[in-house]
Write a structure and sequence with these properties.
Layout lengths: L8 E3 L5 E2 L15 E3 L33 H7 L8 E6 L5 H14 L4 E5 L4 H11 L6 E5 L3 H6 L6 E5 L16 H18 L3 E6 L11 H5 L2 E6 L6 E9 L7 E7 L2 E4 L4 H4 L10 E8 L2 E13 L7 E4 L3 H15 L6 E7 L11 H13 L7 E3 L2 E2 L5 E2 L4 H10 L4 E5 L11 E5 L2 H7 L3
Parallel strand pairs: 4-8, 4-9, 5-6, 5-7, 7-8, 15-16, 17-20, 20-21
Antiparallel strand pairs: 1-2, 1-3, 9-10, 10-11, 11-12, 13-14, 14-16, 18-19
Helix pairs in contact: 8-9
Length: about 450
């Protein structure tokens, strides 16, 4: 009798390998992530999938393919990269299928051969959605089914392939039902291999689980070239598209859309969503310009301080990092006597945008101090600066684009760090400060 071949098991989260199956990974502690490693095909049956090393100067860079969507192209870094794989994730009903179907239709209008593969809808249902979007096209092909192998085989020669969604297809190379970690991994691998072999970008739609993470094995995010997150409040018509991973571009760009009856439409001027053009003097309200990628826009920061009826006051932050809020509250109390130890503190960035990093520190400190003292900040000022633990105001990068955007909207008075260097801009007044105290005195607090 021949020697019995031992089985091998691997954790799809951390890569741990062992000879026995377990419900919980002994290395990372994740549940339900141990799977049997399937044997690779024989050498004769394997397809030649290697490329001999070549000098860098002899390798040609492929030209990007426009998605015919300015916001999407900005987030991608200039358009689709031939042979790349993209994962678009978001909550149910946020508009993932809508934005990609619109993209397919617009690209098809420009003469591109586009294939839309759906594992959740029939071709007639996809056609019904396309009709609602009101974009006519002759070059868009719709495929429906569950076997990804057959559908990808019929998509060769295309300029773009959309897989909607990666959790709804199966591959014959892996056992299990659609949506299981092994099937998600196998389907994604098939799509990625197809993209690289045909030189055609493949976009896969992914689901978000109840924890707010991309459903499926974590390996899925490592396999693809780009991961896009589509987010927004279900009760609001506005959606935000960001790249959390991008091998061919930056991850700090942001695309803003508005959901209307005819689909998603780009918002070319996001400032109108996050800033109100009013000169009302309301305590706890300040304005600051923030930068996301290549785009600068104004945001309005609101703070509310109220006496707490509870022994442990609340600290609520929407659009601002809660740990950043705690840090700035400590600085205000320790350095400038603005104590909120017995008060509830609420902070909100108008419009639902998330301000990342320290770029709104000075405006947030002014809003907190204003709400605490019940005295409004002079609305003619824009506050720009990072705040350190010593209470000092530090410079911010790309100050020129911030000030120019605020000037475009009528602001002419700016409070910035004393150490900030910038080119000369006509028609504005700069007030340079060393610390928060000087800034608060300048705005009337």
């Amino acid at each position: 009798m021949g020697k019995k071949e031992s089985k091998k098991y691997e954790c799809i989260e951390c890569g741990y390998t062992g000879t026995t199956w377990s419900g919980r990974c002994p290395k990372c502690g994740a549940w339900g992530t141990i799977e049997e490693v399937l044997a690779l095909p024989s050498e004769d049956s394997q397809m030649k999938s290697f490329i001999l090393p070549l000098p860098l100067h002899e390798i040609k860079s492929p030209a990007r393919l426009s998605s015919q969507d300015e916001e999407l192209d900005r987030v991608l870094g200039g358009g689709w990269v031939p042979g790349s794989s993209v994962l678009l994730a978001g909550e149910p009903g946020i508009g993932k299928s809508t934005i990609l179907l619109q993209t397919c239709l617009r690209m098809a209008q420009k003469g591109k051969n586009v294939v839309y593969l759906s594992g959740e809808e029939s071709p007639s249902q996809v056609a019904l959605r396309a009709k609602r979007l009101g974009i006519a096209s002759q070059n868009l092909k719709i495929g429906s089914g569950y076997n990804i192998d057959d559908l990808l085989a019929g998509s060769s020669g295309s300029d773009l392939v959309v897989v909607d969604s990666v959790q709804s297809f199966t591959s014959g190379d892996s056992p299990g039902l659609p949506g299981t970690p092994s099937q998600v991994r196998a389907v994604a691998q098939k799509a990625i291999s197809s993209a690289k072999q045909n030189g055609c970008p493949v976009v896969m739609i992914g689901h978000i689980n109840k924890e707010g993470l991309i459903a499926g094995p974590k390996l899925l995010e490592h396999m693809v070239d780009t991961v896009l997150l589509f987010s927004g409040d279900r009760l609001s018509p506005y959606r935000v598209l960001r790249a959390v991973k991008n091998r061919f571009g930056a991850t700090d760009e942001m695309g803003v859309y508005e959901m209307l009856d005819k689909g998603l439409f780009a918002v070319n001027d996001p400032t109108r969503l996050y800033w109100r053009n009013k000169d009302e003097k309301v305590p706890g309200v300040t304005v600051t310009p923030v930068v996301e990628g290549s785009r600068a826009f104004l945001v309005e920061i609101q703070a509310l301080v109220a006496t707490s009826p509870f022994p442990y006051p609340k600290r609520t932050a929407i659009g601002v990092d809660p740990s950043r809020l705690q840090l700035l509250l400590a600085v205000l109390e320790r350095r400038f006597g603005v104590s909120t130890i017995s008060q509830d503190v609420y902070v909100n960035v108008v419009g639902g945008v998330a301000v990342r990093g320290p770029q709104a520190d000075l405006a947030l400190c002014a809003a907190l101090a204003s709400a605490h003292h019940s005295r409004p900040v002079d609305p003619s000022y824009c506050l720009i600066g990072e705040v350190g633990l010593a209470g000092e105001v530090r410079p911010l990068p790309r100050i020129t684009s911030r000030i120019k955007e605020a000037k475009r909207l009528g602001y002419k008075r700016f409070i910035i760090s004393k150490g900030q260097e910038l080119e000369k801009i006509e028609g504005i007044s700069l007030y340079k400060v060393e610390n928060i105290k000087e800034a608060l005195e300048e705005v009337g607090l």
